[in-house]
Structure formats: C-alpha cells, structure tokens
Amino acid sequence: MSSLDTFAATLDDAALTASATPQITATYPDLSVDEAYEVQLKLLQLRWARGECRVGYKMGLTSRAKMIQVGVSEIIWGRLTDAMRQEEGGVLKRSRFVHPRVEPEIAYIIGKPLAGNVSAAEALAAIEAIAPAMEIIDSRYQNFKFALPDVIADNSSSSGFYVGSWAPKSTDVTNLGIIMEVNGRPVQIGSSAAILGNPIRSLVSAARLVAGVGESLQPGDIVLAGAATAAHALTPGEYIRTSFQRLGHVAFSVGA
Ligand code: OOG
Ligand code: MG
Questions:
Q1: Full-prediction pTM beyond 0.85?
Q2: Which residue CA neighbors atom 11 of ligand 1 most closely?
Q3: Ligand 1, atom 8, residue with closest C-alpha
Q4: Residues with CB under 5 A from ligand 2 (ion)
Q5: How far is the CA of 237 from the centre of ligand 1 (A)?
Q6: Ligand 1 pocket check: which of 67, 76, 188 to mutate, most ligand atoms within 8 Å of Cβ?
Q7: How many CB atoms lie under 10 A from the CB of residue 19?
Q8: pLDDT digits (tens, 9 = 90+) for 170-186
Q9: How many angstroms separate the Cα of 199 from the Cα of each of 178, 195, 225, 236?
Q10: 155 CB less than 6 Å from ligand 1?
C-alpha cells in the first residue's frame, strides 16, 4: 500500500468509527493538493466497494463566511454518495459523527452533461432543477482543524445532505434570503449571493474542477453549491429548519 492508500484507509476508519484522527499534514506536511484529491478518490473507492453509489458533488468554501470559519480560502470539492443522503424531516443520529455541523446549501440537479471551462449561461442550460438543501459536514480531524490538503483528502468534510423540493430551473436564485433556525431561533442569516456572488458560479467551478481529474457532471447528478453562511455545530435535541426565500424550507431533528 502506498502512503496515499494508508491516508484513505485511516480517514475511512475515522468516519466509520466516528473518531477523530490527526491531520495528515501534521506528519506529512508536503502532501500536495493533487495528492490530496487522489486520497479523496481512494477514500470514495473504499465506500463504493461497500456498495455506495455516486450521486454527485459538493462544492466547499465558496463563501467568505465559510472561508473565515475554517481558515482555508480555496474553493474545494468532494463527492456525494447515496448513503450520505438524509431523509428530510427525519432524525439525524449525532453519535454517528465526530463533531457534525450543518450549513445551508443550494442544490442543483444536472440535466445535461457539463464539464470543463463553461460559461454561466452553459451551466444554467445544463441544470434540470434547483432545490433548497442543507449539508452535514463532519471533519474527521481532531478539533475540526485542517490545512487545505487535509480537508480535500477528507472528502471536503462531507458526511450528509438534505434536499428539499425541486423548483423549476427558471427560479432566480441569485440573491435569496436564507434563515437557518435552531429550535425556532435564527442562528444564521444570509443570502445565496454570498456564494461567489451568484451560486451558478459554483456550478461553473464544479464543471472545471472535476474535469481536471477527468470527471464530468452527469444527468441526475446533484451538486451542492457550498454554504452561504457559517456552519452550526449540532447537539441532540435540536430541531434545525432552514428557510429559503422562493424555494421553501428543509428541516430535520438531531437525536442522540
Ligand atoms: C469544509 C467544507 C466546506 C462549504 O459548503 O463551504 C463546505 C468544512 O467547512 O469543513 O462544505
Ligand atoms: Mg457545504
């Protein structure tokens, strides 16, 4: 096994056992971004070998609020599997995760293949529908602390996602109000415009970045555009509900 295989196995084990692991860069400071994406692919290959299926991609650190919260300021991406999809309105088991957080997201579903250097107009034309969403992020690293290559290797912290009702692709989502509430109290308020000025730019970035490793956005793929606000750390007993102007809301409860 190469050291990249070992890093992937360690991260996979950390996720399966919900236990934190030291940052890779603590002992291997030279891990490059390209190597980190190789680790991420190896990590996903372990999940696919257990029967999980690819369902799309997540973009990360596409807003200033997120970059500031985690101290990394590069756009990153990760891969979504069917097992990460959570039932909207259901109960999320806190104990399955190390230190989960939730954040508001906008989800696109792809209607036509998209890859490479595309314009915003081409990205819009490739969308089939848009939905309100939330992502559960759970860094497998101790104290939720990481450098850029660490978080990339860790599938960009992705561990779950909720998608609400699909709205027509013609819905203007460039500047929608977003309110994330915990037990009825607003904890994050923002706008979809915080996502790179316009969330479609996140899809443009996704098409370019996945093409860099020979992949493409395929019909039926879900793409999460990245959080518009900082994330909220989850505690059992919380009811999380995020409302998106024009798109409706998404909710779930946190159980032990
Ligand atoms: C990295 C993942 C960032 C987003 O939406 O910005 C992300 C993290 O915050 O742990 O998913
Ligand atoms: Mg996210």
A1: yes
A2: 60
A3: 157
A4: 135, 227
A5: 23
A6: 76
A7: 11
A8: 999 999 999 999 999 99
A9: 13, 5, 6, 31
A10: no
How many other CB atoms sit within 10 Å of the CB of residue 177?
14
Q: How many domains does the structure of the chain reveal?
A: 1
Closest residue to atom 3 of ligand 1, CA basis: 60
Identify the CATH number of the domain in which residue 143 sits: 3.90.850.10
For residue 164, CA distances in Å to 86, 105, 106, 127 come to 11, 10, 10, 16
Domain that holds residue 130: 3-255
- CA dist 89 and 181 (Å) reads 14
- Nearest-atom number in ligand 1 for the CA of 70 is 9
Model pLDDT for residues 191-214, shown as the tens digit of each residue = 999 999 999 999 999 999 999 999
Residue 174's CB: how many other CB atoms inside 10 A?
A: 12
> Tens digits of per-residue pLDDT, 61-117?
999 999 999 999 999 999 999 999 999 999 999 999 999 999 999 999 999 999 999
User: Which tokens in the block code for residue 12?
Assistant: 């996979």
Expressed in angstroms and rounded, the spacing between residue 105 Cα and the centre of ligand 2 is 7
